[in-house]
Write a structure and sequence with these properties.
By secondary structure, the protein is an all-alpha fold. It is built from three helices and no strands. The protein has helices spanning 3-11, 25-37, 42-56. The radius of gyration is 14 Å and the shape is elongated.
Length: 66
Amino acid sequence: MDEAQLRKSVLSGKKSQRIVFAASDEMKAALERISQEKCVSLSALMTSLAAKEILENAELFGEVDE
């Protein structure tokens, strides 16, 4: 599986699951500020950060051609 296929597999499909985590007021404010600067929703920013982490750890999901 190449990087594009891995990205597609984790980002496509119906978004039916939620991940809830605790964050300090400072972390929430910082992420909101970054999302505003990038003109994306906070949800989109966090999804992007999670996808980046998945791609950086692609070896956990099978062979990735680069």
